[in-house]
Amino acid sequence: MTITGFLRLAANTVTAPRDVARLLLAMNLPPQALWIAFALVIVLNTLMFSVSMMLMPGTDAMGPVLASPTVFGAMLAVSVAALIGAVTICGRPLGGQATVGQIAILVIWLQALRVLMQGVVALVGPISVFLSGVVISAATVLGLWIFVNFIDVAHESGSLLRAGLILLLAVVGMMLGLSMVFSLLGISTGGLPGYV
To answer: Of all helices (H) and strands (E), which one includes residue 125?
Structure first.
């Protein structure tokens, strides 16, 4: 995919998320391609996060443990994988039809868009912390709207409300599960679940 194609698809994700979801699902990527794409977005997100931390060294929200790119990348990978599994599983009781692979491609694409957003924040942050906060808040709200539409299309739930419930159950379950695991390991997650 070219840079122009990436930016065009990113814009279409905002204006027509359901069409983009159908396009991504129709690609029917094999597991190997999904794993490569997963690893790529984790590495790029970790890189962009590290750049943001260097440009705004006063940001302590993520905690001292996550100051390490390796630790942050590993925890992000676990969190994103957990989100994929949770959204897949939580859709089942509500009649969801999506497979792990289908949810994975949608979440991976959202993580690719997060790389783009992090790039914007890295450029805006040194100029205005307030403006970067506005960008992050707007991107978070927009990301939730897009993800709910993605879930509705993938799980064929037939209702944005039901898709939103699936996402809510998945996020709550994921955060509880990860909090227990990370607590047993003695690791503070800081704001990582929110970052995902």
So the answer is: none
Predicted pLDDT of residue 175: 87
Tell me the longest C-alpha to C-alpha distance in the chain.
47
Taking only the tens place, the pLDDT of each residue in 116-171 is 998 888 888 778 878 888 888 999 999 999 999 999 999 998 899 999 999 999 99
Cα-based distances in Å from 161 to 89, 145, 158, 167: 17, 11, 9, 10
Question: Taking the model in full, what pTM does it have?
Answer: 0.87
> Taking residues 67-84, what's their average pLDDT?
88
CA–CA dist 35, 108 (Å, integer): 10
Q: Specify the pLDDT at position 77.
A: 94
DSSP secondary structure, 37-93, as one string: HHHHHHHHHHHHHHHHHHHSTT--TTTTGGGSHHHHHHHHHHHHHHHHHHHHHHHGG
The mean pLDDT of 20-25, rounded to a whole number, is: 96
Residues 6+ apart with CB under 8 A from 93: none
Per-residue DSSP letter, 16 = -
Question: End-to-end distance of the chain based on CA atoms, in angstroms?
Answer: 24
Q: What residues have CB less than 8 Å from 58, skipping those under 6 apart?
A: none
- Cα dihedral across residues 82, 83, 87, 90: positive or negative: positive
